[in-house]
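We both want to read C-alpha cells more fluently, so let's practise on a single case. Once you have written the record down, we can walk along the chain together.
***
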Amino acid sequence: MSGDATGPPAWWDSRGEFRRVDRVTGPTGFLSRPDGYVGLRQAPPTAPDRAAHLGGVLRI
C-alpha cells in the first residue's frame, strides 16, 4: 500500500494475484467500496471518467 497526504491509498499487485483472478490484461484501475467490494473498474484508468462515476454515485 502506498499513498501520501495529497491522494488516497493505492495498492500495487506485486505478486500478480489480483491481475490473475480478475483477468486484468493492461493498465486498470479499481475503486474499492468501504465494504470491500469493487465499485468501479476502469481500463485504462482515467481521472475524468472516475470523477463522473463518483459524481453519479454520490449525486454531487
The mean pLDDT is 82. Residues 27-58 form one domain. The chain is about 30% helix and 15% strand. The radius of gyration is 12 Å.
